[in-house]
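Posting for a labmate who doesn't have an account.
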Amino acid sequence: MRIVVLALAVAMAGAAAAHAFKPTRTVEVVVHTGPGGGSDLLARAVASMIEKEKLLPVRMQVVNKTGGGGALAAAYLAEKAGEQHTIGFFTGVWLTSPLTSAEAKVTLRDLTPVARLVLEPALIAVKADAPYKTLGDFIAAAKQQPGQLKQSGGSVTSRDNVVRQLLQKATGARWAKNRRDQVGGLRVHLLARHGILRRAAHRGHVMAELPPVAQRHLDDSLPARHRRRQRVVAEELDPLA
């Protein structure tokens, strides 16, 4: 299975002079997720490490440009061509959204990838008292109740939904998807399981598919007694998963 790559990018026109660049003011770090989303958490962690180690003479400020499955963030970064104080953290949705949405005008050809930072395996979790001990249990239940079970995750072009589509294609099972960009939303949705969730009604059990940064944040904020990990989807097993 292909693993989603999270990398750094800059607007195309600014790349040529990058070797001589020394920041003189705050560096913007553009992400397509809201506060608490995977890219947001990683960008803030990197910014914090750079500040702690005094690797830059200026601050790094994370800028959240949500919407359009990464299209708005990509467009914002492309508009900064020639502006060397703006970089972006991107995932596979920046690549897939232009393939599926006419509104997504900016592709990776308009940007300059700089460095690969993370390879993202996928981890699947359910509420601790859900009846599913394994992913196979969840899939079997989904076959018995087509479209009734739920999966929380990101946009339709996100890795979350790609994993869902691959699993459904391979097994013949069908379950619904609810978008939850922020880790907090994933956590609340995962715990809800039945009935009313804030202003929306969700019936059936919930499965959440999480990127590694969100997994670590979920571990810190949601005790193990409240959720059960089911499966890691990756080329190699994550020893921390």
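Reply:
Got it, the structure tokens are right above this. DSSP finds seven helices and twelve strands in the chain.
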